[in-house]
């Protein structure tokens, strides 16, 4: 990881990447009436995917739908960011390739916790950051929505390989 690019790359992150999900089309109506989901880990993972898709495509309306109004993110520097902060930051978000690994999702009734590692690469494929994350969801009106997130940088000496 290059020291000079790390802060800018990490600042641009919005957490938890995955591939696009079919639910995205249902969110694009911009009214936040999300498709009904089940109370299981697959549905939480689908919400994670939509979050990443919205971030990658700078889809602020869809991102606002995935995050609850009271959402708070503790970023890698310890700064608290609101849903509004993340939505506004989309306009300045860089283009990064993000891969998630070590996913663990646990559902506790109408709440869920998703944990994993987000590996961030620049357009040339060079790793610029590795963040361990925890996302907390609640089941609202038949859909999972994020209420909190936290990222912690993974130190190079603790990485596999």
**Classification by helices and strands:** alpha+beta
The biggest sheet amounts to: 6 strands, mixed
Strand content: 35-45%
* Average pLDDT reading: 79
CATH fold naming: Nuclear Transport Factor 2, Chain: A
Number of separate strands: 6
Distance between the termini: 15 Å
- Number of helices in the DSSP assignment: 5
Q: What is the top-level CATH class?
A: Alpha Beta
- Mass-distribution shape: globular
Q: Show unreliable segments.
A: 1-30
Which architecture per CATH? Answer: Roll
- Radius of gyration over C-alpha positions, nearest whole angstrom: 15 Å
Question: What order do the helices and strands come in, and which of them pair?
Answer:
Elements lengths: L5 H7 L10 H5 L13 H16 L3 H7 E8 L5 E3 H7 L7 E12 L2 E11 L5 E14 L2 E11 L8
Parallel strand pairs: 1-6
Antiparallel strand pairs: 1-2, 3-4, 4-5, 5-6
